[in-house]
Structures are given as structure tokens and as C-alpha cells.
Amino acid sequence: MLGYAAMNRTLREHDPPRRCNRDMQKATWETKGIEYAAELTAQNMEDLRTILRWNQDHGIGFYRCSSALVPWNSQFELPELPNYEHIREVARECGEIIRDSGMRFSFHPDFWCKLASESASTVERSVESVRHHGRWLDLLGLDRSPRYPINVHIGAHYGDKAATADRFCDVIRDLPPRARDRLVVENDDAESLWSVPELVENVSARVGTPVTFDYHHHSFADRGYTYREAFTMAADTWGDQRPIVHYSEPARLHGDHDANPPDHADTVAAVPAWLRAQADVMIESHGKEASVLQFEPRKHEWHTSPTRR
DNA sequence: TGGCGTCAAGGTTGC
DNA sequence: GCAACCTTGACGCCA
After folding, report:
1. Residue A19 burial by CB count (10 A; 0-12/13-18/19+): exposed, middle or buried?
2. Å from A72 (CA) to B8 (C1')?
3. ω before A82 within 30° of 0 (cis)?
4. Distance A296 CA to B6 C1' (A)
5. Structural domain of residue A283, as residue ranges?
6. Quick one: which of A95, A58, A52 has its CA closest to A303?
7. pLDDT value at position A298?
8. Residue A238 falls within a domain, yes or no?
9. Does residue A307 lie in a domain region?
10. Phi-psi category of A59—alpha, beta or left, where left has phi over 0 and alpha has psi -120 to 50?
11. pTM metric for this prediction
């Protein structure tokens, strides 16, 4: 299965635009508050339903949803939303589409999420973030398993990797099941940070958290392992779940010589067959759904109106 | 309405 | 010790 992240450019350019990442800045949150958050959440959830149906109609079986699905959710609990019942009903329908079509569905909290931080308040905020992602997956009615993962990075070393791994594992052990049972950890994109073998040894082996193999990131910290070796190592941590991997190609390979090494290209030329055969592949490229469709023959044209309910 | 400066949050690295 | 950078789309002010 191949997938893409967050924005569907086809539906984003539709009139009206369909997207599930409506957000607001701090000043707006302070003036408009939870009423506006409720409005945005309802629109996001309704458009998520449209995006999932579009994916289903186009044979795309893997989707990563934006973390802006519920804007400012750190400041309130879902049932406090005045339109909670409506949101819950639409979320239930979204979950139904995902389950009925056998789709993979994931979240990827952004780089502010630092579960191994040395600062108690940062850890607290980060834990709250993964808890909320877990609540959203519960609302969708999806299993508490890495079939529907919440994908994080450790993303730092704090000058002491052993102590960082200890803190990370301690935090994971204390997470509620809705977050812990879905958490997966991905290799970082810097030489000094966390490679696949380090995550397998220091995290998976101790707390059972599966490791997401990011193909492009592996080139920054390969630790002497080939892509295939690192993939196999990560895949073995997924138990009875099919592993998820992230695949992208560096912009420099695609002729953008000014790009930084970690920058993603607009598209990907090819996904290695051995990778596709053994894992569900999240393609990370600016081309979004178009990068997937070039490899997946369309099952249906999008004749039906994207506004259908 | 279009253009563009700015955006809640952390951490690393280079100077 | 401080500034730049990471990554990125989109918010929202302003002309």
C-alpha cells in the first residue's frame, strides 16, 4: 500500500477547497475561543471524510492526517466542543471508511513533541499531544494498535543518549493505552540523532515500540548498515502488523542543487520494489497524492461530486 | 483580493 | 551566549 501525507492537492484546489488542516493563530484563539475551534473541527472532520472517500475511489490505501484536525485541542477536551455530537458522528463515519476499505491511517505530531525532553513542562505538553492524537483515533473508532500509528521522533540527544533513551522509555511506559499502544518511533534525519539500530536497541527492545524506517533519513545516520539491513531490523519490531516505512528522495537528486540535503523532492522517481513488497509506504513529497497515483492505477475516476455526503 | 510577513510549542549547531 | 536553521503550509494583516 502506498500513501501520502496531509494535503490532497486535487481537493485543495476544488471549489470549495476540501482540506482537514484548518488552524488558527494564537490571537484568533484568544478572541474567538472554543466556539471557533468547534467550527473549524467540524469542517476539518467533514473534509477528512471527503478525502478518505477520494482515496478509496482512487485505490489509495494509506493516509496520514494533519495534526491540525482539532485546532488548539491542548486547551480543551473534545466533549467540551458545543457541536461534539456532530463531530463524533462524522468521525464515526470516517472510521467506518478506513476500516471497511482496509486503509492504513496515521498521525505524525510535529517537532515540538519532545517526549524525552529534560524539561518537565515540555514533556507534559508533548504527552498531552500524543494523548490527544490517541483520543482522535478513539473517536474514529480505530483499534489501539500500530495498525493506526502515532509516529514520533525522539528528535534530540541532550548530550547524553543513554539518559535520553531512559527518559523516553519511562514516558512511554506511563502513557495511557490509547497513546502507548499506537506509538511508533522514527529514525531522525541527522547524524548526531537517532538511527534505526539505536532505536531498535534502546527503545523497541525495552518497551516494544515499533520503529518506522525512513529511507531518506537512514542516509544521514546509517551506522554502517545498508538500507535493506536497516529496514529488516526495523520491520522486525512490528510484530504481527505490516511495517510502515517513509520514502522520499532528496531534492538535490532531482536537480535542485541549492536544496539542503534533508529537503524532499517534489516527486519520487521510483519506490524500491523490495520495500513495497514488505511494507506500507508513506511517500513524503510535495507532489502529495499525485506521487502515489503515478504508481497506483486508478480504480475509479472522480465523477461523483466531492461534496457528496 | 492578492501579496507577504509571521506563526504556541524545542533543540542543535556554528560563530 | 546568541542567531540561524530545521520544515511548511496557512493564517491574517495591510495596501
Report:
1. buried
2. 9
3. no
4. 38
5. 2-293
6. A58
7. 61
8. yes
9. no
10. left
11. 0.94
Task: Indicate the SS3 state at residue A245.
Answer: strand
- Å from A267 (CA) to B6 (C1')? 28
Q: Residue A304's pLDDT is what?
A: 43
Domain annotation covers residue A111: yes
Average pLDDT over residues A195-224: 95
* Domain CATH number, residue A212: 3.20.20.150
In the 239-278 segment of chain A, residues within 7 Å (Cβ) of strand B are none
pLDDT digits (tens, 9 = 90+) for A163-175: 999 999 999 999 9
pLDDT at A258: 67
Q: What is the mean pLDDT of chain A?
A: 91
Non-local (6+) Cβ contacts of A269 within 8 A are A249, A254
Band (pLDDT 50/70/90 cuts) for residue A120 is: very high
CA A38 to chain centre: 23
Neighbour count for residue A242 (Cβ, 10 Å): 13
Residue A300 lies in a domain: no
Q: Which nucleotide is nearest to A164 (CA to C1')?
A: B11
What is the total count of domains within chain A?
1
Helix orientation angle between A26-57 and A84-100, rounded to the nearest 10 degrees = 30
Residue with smallest Cα–C1' gap to B9: A112
Do residues A261 and A229 touch, judged by C-beta distance below 8 A?
no
- A158 contact to strand B (CB, 7 A limit): yes
Say which residue the cell 470516517 belongs to.
Answer: A94
Q: How confident is the model at residue A305 (pLDDT cuts 50, 70, 90)?
A: very low
Are the CB atoms for A156 and A127 separated by under 8 Å? no
More confident residue, A79 or A15: A79
